[in-house]
Specification:
heterotrimer; A mainly alpha (about 290); B alpha/beta (about 375); C mainly alpha (about 325); B: about 375 residues; alpha/beta; Rossmann fold; 4-stranded parallel β-sheet; C: about 325 residues; mainly alpha; two-stranded antiparallel sheet; two-stranded antiparallel ribbon; globular
């Protein structure tokens, strides 16, 4: 087992983890771009997707094929409720208050799931079996292919939506300047709602697709959310390719760090990279520098 | 005249009843600190359930020396600060005579100075060897020492001519305690540790660490942690095609591990308390009766398998019961009688506390098991 | 000043009401949390800089003191001084690059810093004892008096807390305090007015870290055992919550916030497993309906309940 094969394995594993971070990061970025809010409850959407799928399978005896879209829909509904009840009523909240509210919501969601579902970790069946596939000496599972496929689809769908559809363009307009957008007739409130719906759906999809590999429990959202947030920052909070690449980079560096440097400090390596990036190029790798009117 | 008689009788009866309830002596208060929520809830919840179940049954059968037991439970959430607050509250406010728990080594170490100063006996359900070694006057434990588990594993490795191992331990108090023991006992067993890797309790992918191990000269991998990490490790190992034998710790000695890891669990070996294989034990095994009783009981109450961890709480409460029966309910008497507990066949093993040994179990408290066809098989 | 004297009197006399018992233990932790909340408020409420990693400074102070006294038998007071000094130096050096960032970038950076420090605590097992924690930390003592029970610790901790509150109140009402608030409102405008914003931000950051480190040392000597779990991301969020709920930009608000959030788990014990939900709901509703924090919300609530007085005031 020579070093190059090991390296390839690290990279391949890192890319698949990174794809998950990317999907979660997109959720953060989309909400941030249309509302300026950092949604600390994004990780809980991820958790809800997997947890709800499992509940539908076991409680309602639904087959996987039905349970998955149902879980995504349910999570989207929860996202809507969240937005309606806590975000919409606040007109002049400071960013800090919004951060605290989203943290409160994430605690609440976690608590409810913990009570209704229990604290157990449970496994979701893999979508297409567990036999490893070999790619030039590195092995991955079929589930990893699903993850890559989903990420690819999401990138394409994102591009199509944000650049070629009216509502997508309207959302981008909101992210540039909310007041100007409302002046040209865009219903900003509805855009905010859409952004929450999209992020919730994306988050839950990420959670479902990764659950067969990582299993799920009421508290998987915390760390995943943080890493997703990192991915979004590395990507400059872009709603598209930038964040995806940010996630992939994060996952790969983490994997290389764990294998080559030290497994105990794996998370520290990821955050150190983040800090260095923030110090040197805070707008992310892909955005041009931002200027602010004072 | 009649009303006066009626009134007096009523008052008299009322007085009798109140004095009777006063004489129906005050319950014996036992405190408990478990990590019911938080990262160690897989320990704290079964322990809390079991402790309550045992106390209820003792009370239904008449209590201890005619008095009912009252269990006061606090949740440490796996946080040492909260464990300390809970202990202080139990001692100062609830005025308990003994404490069961805490669930984790970290919480226990934090609480030890408090019980030592307050002279209250404590029976911890945590595995760390350093809880009772060096010996503390008021501290006992029921969970098997991780030192014993390591001993068993290393023995088996030597039997199979394996001397080079790779470690993969979780970075929490359970894992780090095990890692300490693995490193401490390696030389005396002739085992060479080639690599020493860790993973976080919430990590979801260990392929990097296992890839590194796969590329090394290790002849076996020892993984020390509690669910879900080891299940992920099992799956990752299968994915990467790891061929060397995998040994795990008693942290995963429950059916849940097999559920989570699925096919990947096949062939994994670990030391376990006998409760896991109660039905496979020979009838001559002295623990078999109490083990089967525990498993059936827990199943009836909680519709889940009575596992290794709940057993720690069972043993703690039963040992307390024995001590109170022999010596009375003052903390000092309980402590003294605990030290006189001999040959108590519990769930974790056969306990023999002495003034020099507050852990009470020997190496044979563990049996080695292997996963075969999604079930446990006894190894020798 | 009057407010402060009343507070001091209440703090000094309170133990006589509670005469030992469990509540004393809780009040000790309230004291430590107040120190932390006040320190964080200087940064968050007055200077307007988000920090989601303050538990790191708390932990560094605690481990600094803990390791020096438990492993190297250094005098506890000296250890506290050295520890606080080291943390202040670290904060000063890290402050320059970190405080160039703003908004959620700063939040993320401080978050990352906090997590890195936590991981270091967990991994450097030989130094810190790792996840199993560090035990055997001695109590503080002053000549013949050893602070080894809740009653004595209460006075020790609150002595420090009151001192820090006093210093903070003075700072906030001084020229520096006004400069801080100017930076909060508009950094560019403040700079135009001659305020060295960059240096001042770093200085406040350092002061805030210093206070947290001292609180950490005191915590270590009170508990005699510390473990990384108490210094993680979760506690950093709790601190921010205390400051916000109490009221940003109000020292007394931080006291209220610390009191509420430390007592809350005790009050919620009755709810058992439901306490997480209640905590989350409380967080959400307080932020939504009392954005100014308790320090504005309580007087407003009282004003609502006394309509007569208000009407009289209107016609005055």
């Amino acid at each position: 087992m020579d070093i190059s094969q090991q390296l390839l394995q690290y990279i391949v594993s890192g890319l698949s983890t990174g794809a998950i971070y990317a999907l979660i990061g997109l959720g953060f970025a989309i909400i941030y771009n249309s509302t300026g809010i950092i949604n600390f409850a994004q990780g809980e959407f991820v958790m809800l997707g997997a947890v709800l799928t499992l509940s539908f399978i076991s409680a309602l005896q639904l087959p996987l094929l039905l349970a998955v879209p149902l879980a995504i829909a349910a999570t989207t509904v929860i996202g809507v409720i969240f937005e309606r009840l806590t975000i919409r009523p606040l007109k002049n909240a400071t960013p800090l208050s919004l951060v605290i509210i989203t943290i409160g919501v994430s605690i609440l969601l976690r608590g409810i799931v913990m009570l209704l579902w229990g604290k157990d970790t449970r496994a979701l069946p893999a979508f297409s079996g567990n036999d490893p596939l070999s790619i030039a000496g590195a092995t991955i599972l079929p589930q990893h292919l699903w993850i890559f496929a989903l990420t690819g689809l999401v990138i394409i769908a994102n591009k199509l939506y944000f650049y070629y559809s009216i509502s997508g363009k309207a959302m981008r307009a909101c992210s540039f300047n909310r007041r100007a957008a409302s002046l040209v007739g865009i219903d900003v409130k509805r855009m905010v709602l859409f952004s929450f719906m999209i992020s919730a759906a994306l988050g839950s999809m990420a959670g479902i697709i990764v659950a067969p590999l990582t299993m799920t429990a009421y508290d998987v959202g915390i760390m995943l959310g943080l890493k997703g947030f990192c991915a979004a920052i590395i990507g400059g909070m872009s709603s598209g390719l930038g964040t995806v690449i940010g996630g992939l980079i994060l996952g790969t560096l983490e994997s290389l760090g764990a294998g080559l440097i030290s497994s105990g400090y794996k998370d520290a390596i990821a955050f150190i990279i983040l800090l260095l990036l923030l110090f040197i190029r805070p707008q992310g790798l892909f955005k041009k520098g931002e200027t602010e009117r004072v | 005249m009649l009303t006066r008689v009626v009134r007096t009788t009523a008052v008299f009866l009322l007085l009798c009843l109140t004095t009777a309830s006063a004489f129906a002596a005050a319950p014996i208060k036992i405190g408990a600190i478990f990590a019911i929520t938080g990262p160690a809830s897989f320990l704290g919840e079964p322990e809390r359930n079991t402790a309550q179940m045992v106390v209820d049954e003792i009370n239904k059968a008449g209590g201890v020396k005619g008095r009912q037991l009252q269990l006061v439970v606090y949740d440490s959430q796996g946080d040492a600060t909260k464990a300390v607050q809970a202990a202080t509250r139990l001692i100062k406010e609830d005025k308990v005579v003994a404490i069961v728990g805490p669930s984790t080594t970290g919480d226990t170490m934090a609480v030890i100075p408090i019980v030592e100063k307050a002279n209250i006996p404590m029976i911890s359900c945590a595995a760390g060897s350093k809880i009772t070694d060096p010996l503390k006057k008021w501290v006992f434990k029921t969970a098997q020492n991780d030192a014993l588990a390591v001993d068993r594993i290393y023995e088996h490795l030597k039997q199979n001519n394996i001397s080079k191992v790779a470690l993969l331990t979780v970075s929490d108090s359970f894992g780090s305690s095990g890692r300490e023991q693995l490193k401490a006992q390696a030389a005396s067993h002739g085992i060479q540790i080639l690599s020493d890797d860790t993973y976080g309790p919430k990590d979801t992918d260990m392929t990097a660490q296992i890839t590194k191990i796969r590329g090394s000269q290790a002849q076996a991998m020892i993984c020390w942690g509690t669910n879900p990490g080891p299940a992920v490790i099992a799956r990752n190992s299968k994915q990467l095609g790891l061929t060397i034998p995998i040994y795990m710790s008693h942290g995963v000695s429950s059916k849940k591990f097999i559920d989570l890891a699925g096919d990947a669990a096949e062939g994994i070996r670990l030391p376990s308390g006998r409760v896991l294989v109660a039905d496979l034990l020979p009838n001559s095994d002295r623990q078999k009766k109490s083990l089967l009783a525990f498993v059936k009981d827990y199943q009836k109450h909680f519709k889940a398998e009575g596992d290794h961890f709940g057993g720690h709480a069972w043993d703690a409460v039963m040992l307390l019961k024995g001590a109170i029966e022999r010596g009375g309910d003052s903390p000092a008497a309980i402590r003294d009688q605990l030290e006189n507990s001999r040959n108590v066949a519990g769930v974790g093993g056969i306990f023999n506390y002495t003034p020099q040994d507050h852990a009470g179990l020997k190496k044979n408290a563990f049996v080695l098991v292997e996963v075969k066809k999604k079930d446990w098989v006894l190894l020798k | 000043m009057v407010k402060f004297l009343i507070l001091t009197a209440v703090v000094l006399l309170a133990p006589l009401l509670f005469t030992g018992g469990y509540l004393m233990n809780v009040l000790v932790f309230v004291g430590i949390n107040t120190m932390l909340a006040v320190g964080l408020n200087l940064l968050l409420g007055f200077a307007g800089q988000i920090s989601l990693g303050h538990a790191a400074f708390f932990g560094l102070g605690a481990y600094g003191s803990g390791i020096l006294t438990a492993t190297y038998a250094v005098n506890p007071w000296l250890a506290m001084l050295l520890s606080a000094g080291a943390v202040a130096l670290l904060a000063f050096l890290v402050g320059f690059p970190i405080l160039k960032l703003k908004g959620h970038y700063l939040a993320m950076a401080t978050l990352g810093l906090g997590i890195i420090v936590y991981i270091v605590f967990n991994e450097t097992v030989d130094l810190t004892g790792g996840p199993s924690g560090l035990s055997g930390i001695p109590n503080l003592s002053f000549w013949k008096l050893t602070f080894d029970n809740d009653f004595k610790n209460y006075y020790l901790i609150w002595g420090f807390t009151l001192l820090i509150m006093l210093l903070s109140i003075n700072l906030v009402n001084s020229r520096i305090g006004r400069a801080l608030r100017a930076i909060h409102d508009s950094e560019v405008a403040a700079r135009v007015m001659g305020v060295n914003a960059r240096l001042l931000k770093v200085q406040v950051f350092t002061l805030s870290a210093l206070i947290s480190a001292v609180a950490g040392s005191l915590y270590a000597h009170t508990m005699t055992f510390i473990s990384p779990a108490s210094f993680g991301f979760h506690f950093s969020i709790e601190l921010v919550t205390m400051v916000i709920i109490g009221g940003l930009g109000s020292i007394y608000g931080s006291l209220l916030g610390a009191v509420l959030l430390t007592l809350l788990p005790e009050l919620l014990r009755a709810f058992q497993d439901y306490d997480i939900i209640v905590y989350g709901l409380l967080l959400i509703s307080m932020t939504m309906f009392m954005p100014g924090g308790l320090v504005k919300g309580i007087p407003a609530g009282i004003a609502l309940l006394l309509p007569g007085r208000r009407r009289r005031g209107e016609h005055a």
